[in-house]
Amino acid sequence: MMRTQAKVVRWMAALSLASAVVPAAGQDWLSEEGTxxxxxxxxxxxxxxxxxxxxxxxxGEEIVSAPSPLAGAASSTGTAVVEEEGAxxxxxxxxxxxDACRYPRDQGPFQQPxxxxxxxxxxxxxxxxxxxxxxxxRNAPQGLPLYSDLNATTPNGFGATAFDAxxxxxxxxxxxxxxxxxxxxxxxxxxxxxxxAANFRSQEATLPxxxxxxxxxxxxxxxxxxxxxxxTSDLSASIWSFELNRWSRWRPNIALLHGYRMxxxxxxxSLVDHYQLDPANPAPDFGQDIFGSRTYNSLYGYQIGTDxxxxxxxxxxxxxxxxxxxxxxxxxxxxxxxxxQTGPDTFQTAAVRAAGGAASFVGEVGLTGTIPLGQNIAxxxxxxxxxxxxxxxxxxxxxxxxxxxxxxxxxxxxxxNTVGSTVVQGVTLGLEGRW
Length: 435
Known about the structure:
Blueprint lengths: L1 H20 L5 E4 L4 E4 L59 H4 L13 H7 L5 E12 L6 E5 L11 E4 L8 E11 L5 E17 L7 E3 L14 E22 L2 E23 L9 E27 L5 E26 L2 E27 L4 E15 L28 E15 L1
């Protein structure tokens, strides 16, 4: 009997000692993990099952055959050392799911950490938002001789090319890009990305030379005129894209992706030549021809790709690369016009329009360096390159259809050429936030 009473007394002493080291309200015991966890709650202290008398020997030392309900290692006198995991007790969590992240269970929605605490203290991100500025260049159109030099003639009556479509080099275009990622604890994610860039602009002109130029055969829209004094061009373009992708983690540093993408590419060209209405009376009678063409490509398709982490040693920068490509249906349309001068101050215009479908391809490459600025925000600097194939472009519509002046002919032929291509590339700069 006395032996039993002694055991009870020792058990009560051990329980009193345990209660002395229990933190204030807001801490939960993890008996299965052997550590303590802070519970962001005002509902009181949550304590696991008390130690049974059988867990202590006559000398008061804890028997280590089973994990102690008190966090930490027990001393020889039965005093438990509590290990703290941090202000919010998230430890080495890898996601917001309770099993994966050891997020506090059995708490109502109003007892979870507040939004500001999550943004400040969360170690693993469920949502990722990226906002970036794009500065892009596009290559010149495919080469197409349009006007030739008449001063150094060849046997066919035309000299070297004086103006070619490949001379229309554009200035850079700027625009925004926004991305939202929803990631689960396995590293899989949904991605929503939209960007827009405008205005690629090219303005070119030949040196003014009286009767110095002529249209290179077979001419423009079926017109073959000479002589001409000068030629000017104005070409503009814009691009936009929206994509919805599913990312699947294949390796720790490799993700595969596939999804739906829409992309729009539009161009507008104005080509003007100036000539003398009466070559025998040079000034002040001048005329001009205005050739205009506008194309728009609406691409819809499916793409696949991969994202590879090239460098990440846990330091100040990580480097990622991305490669995507897909087949697209191109709903292309072109409208072309020819405005010609019939008198000193009078003009007439003839126009045609054509539309149709075509198969296109879009490929994308990217290289991005991410520099952490804080626990949940980072700076992103990178390269973006796009290759678009199977496009309707204005310079490719200048031949193959007929738009002539009234009295000489009528707009009899409208065609759609979709063999064009372009490369868009540039730099990106922005921020990434995770919560």
